[in-house]
Amino acid sequence: MHRKYFFFDIDGTLTDDATHKIVPSAERTLHALERNGHFVSIATGRAHYKAQGFADAIGIRNLVCNGGECLVLNGKVIENRPLDHEIALFLIRHAEAAGLGYLLMCDDSDRVFMKDTRFLEQAGRRTELTTYVLDPDLDPEQIPSIFKVYIAMREDQEAANPWIMKQGHLRMGPGYLNFQHDAKKDGILRMLKAVGGNEADVVVFGDAVNDLVMFDPRWTSIAMGNGMRELKEKADYVTAANTDDGIEKACRRFGWI
What we know:
This protein is α/β, with parallel strands linked by helices. It is built from 7 helices and 16 strands. It has helices spanning 24-35, 48-58, 85-97, 118-123, 184-195, 229-234, 246-253, and strands at residues 5-8, 15-16, 21-22, 39-43, 63-65, 70-73, 76-80, 102-105, 111-114, 131-134, 148-152, 169-173, 176-179, 202-206, 220-223, 237-238. It has an 8-stranded mixed sheet, with helices on both faces. It has a 4-stranded antiparallel sheet with strand order 8-11-13-12. It has a two-stranded antiparallel sheet with strand order 2-3. Strand 4 (39-43), helix 2 (48-58) and strand 5 (63-65) form a beta-alpha-beta unit.
């Protein structure tokens, strides 16, 4: 069978949003693809430490994570890039000038650093497990690597703060934005180069706004039936919803399994 290179988003694609667990048919499809000689990888905005735990649990050894800036090949991290330091500082300076609290992820863990408690006061706790480190002497300019910046900001404040467009970001809750890499496509291309694959043989599956960037005309892009309208319009094919065995149905339709 001609080898394809598959890249799957996690949330809303592989996993059921109601349970946050992988859809059983999706898990068996990933392993069926591998048995047929295809390359299978996760492609997610999640930080490496979170994505690795998910991949280990389902037995997948290849990852494009950290929004495309971390590559894991055969279980080994081959790169993990932080945010551009000047852009991170740009965001922090503007947040401080606007009186907005912020958190900094400075390593590959669930720890975030804050110089005061403004983020918690303005936005509350993050929606995921987090270890908060309060350091009144925190100096972002002296931190060599900043992987993510979380800034307290409601949706109705965004229009008055156009500087947020300097870096890709997601709204992870009603009270804050998560500034992170938005380069899944670039990560896929670097992974493809690392394994010697061809662009025309790539297949990507996604459902949400942060998957738009990896839907590219050079390869096959498949949107989940539960996905957003804009993604479906950009897709080469729209399959059934993830919980309706969408991944398995698409792979059977195209003869990959």
